[in-house]
Please model this.
Amino acid sequence: MIPLLILGLLIQNPGAHGYELLALMEKRHYKYIVNFTKGSFYYNLQQLEEKGWIEQIQQNSSTSGRETRNFKITESGMAEFEKLMVKYGTKSEYVNLQFYGALLFADEFDKNKLLELIQSQIDQTKTRIALLDEYLSNTQELPGTIDYYRRMNENSRSHHLVNLEWFEQLRAEIEGHIA
Model:
């Protein structure tokens, strides 16, 4: 998935350097789409260059005196982008929280500690909703266009709201069993 994100960002931002692309991924909260680190990002960037899907277009000295490596997508990179769009665009997977794995053994776990885990899920979900609300309140769809990223974030927010309701119901049920 990281290669798709990098290639897509280079189509949108030809001539960008790695740090700019990474900053865009962070600013746009792509971490909700795929887990990535700075290291995994730069590893994928290097792999794309080695495969010939992106190429360096120039080396500039930045204001800090460091050289930057600016990239553009190649013709074979465009073909790979098309393949990745089909690959990921045709996948539909179950919503799967790692929390589900822990919940499988909830009956064998201290109920008060389980409530702490659920509260952690509630807190994390509220944080995600707040970040999405912030993004959505600071952007608006231009008339006559479809802002797919905005729509995706609206959908993600809806999922988080459902999860939040479920976590809160689960917490109430467990609290009821403890009392």
Notes: The longest strand covers residues 54-61.
